[in-house]
Amino acid sequence: MTDLSNVADSDLRGIRDVDVDDVLAYVHAELKRLPDYTELYKRYLRQRWNVYDLDFSQDVIDWRERMTHEERDAFVGISAGFHHGERQVEVELPVFMLGGSEESKIYMSSQIEDEARHTVFFDRFYREVVGMPGDSIQDVLDASYQHVSETFVGPFGLLAYQADELRKDPENPAARVRYGTTYFLWIEGVLALTVMKITLTYCRQRGLLPGYYTGFTATCRDEARHVQFGMRFLRDSVQEDPRLLLQIHETLRTILALNNAASRRVDLYSLGWAPEEIRRLMIRQLTMKLDDVGIDLPPDLREQVARIEPELAGG
């Protein structure tokens, strides 16, 4: 087994030297075992980082002098959905936290803090490096919203609807599984990790944006805890009530139908990624998680997965 202690134990200074592929391996390393909620909370205490310790001074130079217009447009386009997604789950995860065990609630408190930190990370990047206008976090969110595509709006719109369901009945197991499938499996497990792989690989190969690379790599490590929590929740839910597997299937059918509904495309060739490479990456992210925790898909869903649209964002 690959030694991933450099991922697990690095501080913010050390994580700048970690390869994104090692972080993605760290996400998947324990999906078959799946640590319990208390262990994940202990990891949060060891791994949390200060977003205000990041230095974006070199990023400003890289953005203005070393990146092309096409690279900047693609970078903002693919990252904008992440920016808004962090903010949305920061304010909606407390609804999911209302249900479940006390251990899960304690862990979830740490993830909410993670999401707030990630929101501030993107606010700093868009404000200090990209130069988007605004005096408040909401101002910057408003400025970046024009870059968010349907492939992000669709899943997050569905998530908002599912959060409203949970507000009415936080302990409803079917509603919790539907929310968990959309958020933990698709948004975090597929969309987020794919954006991380694309942007962080670009930064590392080109030697650009060290502040962004450091902060987003630390964010990716946080996602390991989030995805492992979510996959444990889905696995345990199905083991307790096998009928809930149908809720996962139906939610995925909806998500994958929304995935095809995009009128705007962004050219990611400028970041070194062809559409077919992104398609394979997204399919791998989804199927690895399902296979590792023993969640099977019927033939029609497997066909939908094979038709995943690779375009992640548009501007």
Spatial gap, N to C terminus: 41 Å
Largest sheet: none
Helix and strand content put the structural class at mainly alpha
Global Rg = 18 Å
The number of distinct helices, counting runs of at least 4 residues, comes to: 14
Average pLDDT across residues? 89
Shape: globular
State the CATH topology: Ribonucleotide Reductase, subunit A
Number of spatially distinct domains: 1
Regions with pLDDT < 50 over 5+ consecutive residues? Answer: none
Descriptive terms for the model:
mainly alpha, 315 residues, Ribonucleotide Reductase, subunit A, 14 helices
Give a verbal description of the structure.
This protein is mainly alpha-helical. It has one domain: Ribonucleotide Reductase, subunit A. 74% of the residues lie in helices and 0% in strands. It is built from 14 helices and no strands. Helix 3 packs parallel to helix 11, helix 4 packs parallel to helix 7 and helix 6 packs antiparallel against helix 7. The longest helix has 34 residues.
